[in-house]
């Protein structure tokens, strides 16, 4: 058995290809779209033209044998810019939910619609959080009831913090069908484009990742065909029957999706941290104070050493979690949460130190580390806060119902 920490040669080619797009297309546009706080459709279109934003690319990297395909792509794009990268890759969360829980027929019908075409790219949205249910997904109030007379699901509620919410072609919405069962009574539903009763609520103005569209979505007596419950109604009914009998069932709708995507969120954070570190390193080699390069002072050099070490450690945790997920290894010690926690807190630490190294310059929008610092904070919040990751990890390692 051979062991290697090197990326496979074909994946190195993909890494180089994505890095060049990030350097040549994303970075030059980053400041503009951050200021505009708008979805960068022209850049999404450019990514679609070269096949970077496509159903095929997502499928190929998700199936890449080492498990490192998707995290490699995410790190490079987020190295370019977090807001633009999330606009390009935000569809991935909804796609992961569909691919992981949908029937083959649902995947075949709806996955292409999530991405659109080269000439007319679309995006998708995964809608789980609510005004009163963020990390506490068991408290979801959006309701779905089955109307037997019409073979339709009827959904009512409000979702918040939805990436691409309202502008997406396809939305995946988590709702409670049997509230008395808590999270075990939840299911995910496919909302087709232009469905009556489905609308965008407020669009949020954010601290960071401003080029990525984040909004509320409102469901007011939304009716969809009975076949649009993710995984099919028969499978859902069987799961509910087991839950009522007190038997163990598969994970609830939202958390099952987040478990699959936590390594990629870690990769996003690593990309931002690496970008800030590299900029601070170059700056320290050029900037002079007291007749010396500031990188020649231990106070600065030691910061750079710590930044680099933490980035490498975070990346290795992300790689391990991604490899485990691809190869069907159980996260017995919450390795997915571990990767996400360490990578996200590393991004906050590294971008903060980058500003410190640049001093007053780092605090201005004339230098990109200010934007990177704003972007980094979200990784300790979305798809499970740092506190939630620690809760998941502590439960896993102790076996106790820690709260």
Explain the overall architecture.
The protein is α+β, with helices and mostly antiparallel strands and 403 residues long. It is 52% helix and 14% strand. It has helices at 9-36, 41-49, 55-62, 69-80, 82-89, 91-101, 104-115, 233-244, 253-286, 298-326, 335-358, 369-376, 386-398, and strands at residues 124-127, 143-147, 152-163, 170-176, 186-191, 198-203, 214-225, 288-289, 292-293. The chain has a four-stranded antiparallel β-sheet, with no helix packed on it. A three-stranded mixed β-sheet has the order 1-4-5. A two-stranded antiparallel ribbon has the order 8-9. Strand 2 (143-147) and strand 3 (152-163) form a beta hairpin.
Quick structural overview:
The model has no long low-confidence stretch (mean pLDDT 94). The chain contains 13 helices and 9 strands.
Low-pLDDT parts are none
Tell me what portion of residues adopts beta-strand conformation: 5-15%
Percent of residues in helices: 40-55%
Mean pLDDT: 94
- Separation of termini? 42 Å
Strand order of the largest sheet: 2-3-7-6
Described by the principal axes of the CA atoms, the overall outline is globular
> How many strands in all?
9
Radius of gyration: 22 Å
Secondary-structure-derived class: alpha+beta
Number of helices: 13
User: Could you give a short account of the major beta sheet?
Assistant: 4 strands, antiparallel
* Assembly form of the protein: single chain
> How do the helices and strands follow one another from N- to C-terminus?
HHHHHHHEEEEEEEHHEEHHHH
């Amino acid at each position: 058995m051979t062991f290697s920490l090197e990326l496979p040669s074909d994946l190195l080619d993909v890494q180089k290809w994505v890095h060049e797009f990030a350097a040549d297309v994303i970075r030059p546009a980053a400041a503009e779209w951050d200021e505009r706080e708008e979805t960068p459709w022209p850049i999404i279109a450019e990514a679609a033209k070269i096949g970077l934003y496509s159903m095929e690319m997502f499928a190929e990297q998700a199936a890449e044998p080492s498990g490192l395909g998707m995290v490699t792509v995410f790190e490079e794009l987020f190295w370019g810019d977090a807001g633009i990268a999330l606009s390009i890759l935000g569809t991935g969360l909804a796609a992961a939910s569909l691919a992981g829980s949908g029937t083959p027929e649902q995947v075949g019908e709806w996955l292409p619609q999530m991405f659109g075409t080269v000439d007319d790219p679309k995006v998708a949205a995964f809608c789980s959080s609510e005004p009163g249910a963020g990390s506490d997904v068991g408290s979801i109030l959006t309701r779905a009831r089955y109307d037997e007379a019409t073979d339709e699901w009827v959904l009512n509620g409000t979702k918040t913090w939805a990436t691409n919410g309202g502008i997406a072609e396809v939305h995946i919405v988590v709702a409670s069908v049997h509230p008395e069962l808590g999270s075990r009574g939840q299911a995910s539903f496919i909302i087709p484009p232009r469905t009556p009763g489905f609308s965008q609520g407020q669009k949020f103005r954010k601290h960071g990742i401003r080029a990525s569209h984040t909004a509320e979505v409102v469901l007011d007596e939304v009716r969809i065909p009975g076949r649009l419950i993710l995984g099919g109604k028969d499978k859902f009914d069987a799961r509910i029957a087991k839950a009522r009998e007190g038997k163990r069932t598969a994970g609830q709708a939202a958390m099952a999706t987040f478990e699959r995507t936590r390594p990629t969120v870690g990769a996003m954070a690593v990309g931002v941290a690496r970008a800030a570190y590299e900029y601070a390193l170059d700056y320290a080699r050029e900037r002079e104070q007291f007749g010396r390069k500031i990188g020649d002072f231990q106070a600065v050099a030691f910061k750079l050493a710590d930044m680099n070490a933490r980035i490498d450690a975070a990346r290795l945790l992300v790689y391990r979690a991604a490899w485990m997920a691809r190869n069907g290894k159980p996260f017995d010690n919450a390795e997915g949460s571990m990767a996400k926690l360490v990578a996200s807190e590393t991004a906050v630490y590294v971008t903060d130190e980058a500003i410190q190294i640049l001093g007053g310059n780092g605090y201005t929008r004339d230098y990109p580390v200010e934007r990177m610092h704003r972007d980094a904070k979200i990784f300790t919040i979305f798809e499970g806060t740092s506190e939630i990751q620690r809760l998941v990890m502590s439960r896993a390692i102790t076996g106790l119902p820690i709260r």
